[in-house]
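About this split. The held-out portion is used to measure sequence recovery: a designer receives only the structure tokens and must propose an amino acid at every position. Recovery is the fraction of positions where the proposal matches the reference. Here is one held-out target exactly as it appears in the evaluation file.
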């Protein structure tokens, strides 16, 4: 009898957990980082016209937030050296947000010539990564980004914050959630409307994500946070589900699973946007994103780069379907 009761309690607990998960994902905002974070680590230079076409294809698929360029020094990230040309060439679709990554005031001043509306700043969650990626300490990096945030808000722009290496660092090892919560708090104090928590090297698991969320939610509301997972160990979607259970509403992803970091050896690409959208449709979330067009965008950039897509959904579906609704039925396991 006791074993039966325990089994019933466990079943009830699992069902309640599932119901809670479904109730928190009714409206998910997808923040596409492929044209910037996805391409920055590619050794083959991607010409401006290809980057622009990729951005156009993503917008045509229904993506509403597309991080399009970076204004870091071309000395350090040559792939992003044409940020000005990209931003001046894209044809902007109504209702689509085209944010850019900004490292300092110099980069900000250049970006301001390109009719931008949103900037992203990116302190590190560890001292080791901050030194490698920004050539300064975490504290110095925050001071630098505060200057950008203050000026951007003064100019009427939105500011988004990223924190890299939120659960693990290639130089410092595991990262304590309390330190990430402190940086998160400082970014909101600067005026960031949202902070994205990035597992830059993809070492996170559902357990480490849950521990991180419990700590960060002491200083922030879930609707003001985003999740940014790299899929190095194949944990991207399970980590995402763990985060969604805390009420997170925004998820970063990259078309075709592109990504990596010049200063995080071994880190692979981001959670693939195709996989994310398919996953969300399976949960009953209507993202208003056309998977047929999204898969086409993924094939477009993968073909240019001369490599196979990292999106499992893209590989599985390829060009088998012409109708988006047919793919949604598969994702939802809908029976007619």
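Reference sequence for scoring:
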């Amino acid at each position: 009898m006791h074993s039966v009761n325990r089994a019933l309690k466990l079943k009830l607990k699992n069902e309640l957990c599932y119901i809670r998960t479904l109730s928190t994902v009714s409206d998910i905002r997808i923040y596409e980082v492929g044209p910037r974070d996805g391409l920055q680590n590619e050794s083959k230079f991607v010409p401006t016209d290809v980057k622009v076409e990729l951005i156009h294809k993503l917008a045509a698929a229904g993506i509403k937030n597309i991080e399009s360029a970076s204004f870091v020094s071309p000395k350090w990230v040559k792939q992003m050296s044409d940020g000005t040309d990209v931003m001046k060439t894209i044809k902007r679709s109504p209702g689509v947000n085209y944010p850019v990554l900004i490292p300092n005031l110099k980069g900000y001043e250049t970006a301001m010539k390109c009719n931008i509306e949103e900037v992203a700043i990116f302190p590190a969650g560890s001292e080791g990564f901050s030194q490698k990626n920004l050539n300064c300490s975490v504290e110095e990096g925050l001071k630098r980004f505060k200057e950008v945030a203050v000026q951007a808000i003064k100019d009427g722009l939105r500011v988004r914050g990223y924190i890299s290496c939120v659960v693990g660092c290639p130089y410092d090892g595991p990262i304590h959630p309390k330190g990430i919560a402190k940086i998160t708090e400082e970014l909101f104090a600067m005026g960031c409307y949202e902070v994205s928590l990035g597992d830059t090297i993809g070492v996170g698991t559902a357990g480490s994500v849950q521990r991180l969320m419990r700590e960060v939610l002491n200083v922030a509301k879930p609707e003001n946070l985003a999740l940014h997972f790299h899929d190095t160990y194949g944990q991207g979607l399970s980590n995402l589900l763990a985060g969604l259970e805390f009420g997170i509403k925004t998820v970063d992803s990259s078309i075709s699973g592109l990504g990596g970091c010049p200063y995080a050896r071994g880190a692979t690409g981001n959670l693939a946007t195709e996989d994310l959208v398919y996953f969300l449709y399976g949960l009953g979330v209507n993202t208003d994103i056309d998977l047929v067009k999204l898969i086409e965008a993924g094939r477009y950039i993968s073909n240019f780069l001369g490599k196979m897509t990292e999106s499992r959904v893209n590989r599985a579906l390829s060009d088998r379907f012409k109708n988006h609704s047919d793919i949604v039925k598969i994702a939802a396991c809908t029976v007619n």
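Annotator remark: The radius of gyration is 20 Å.
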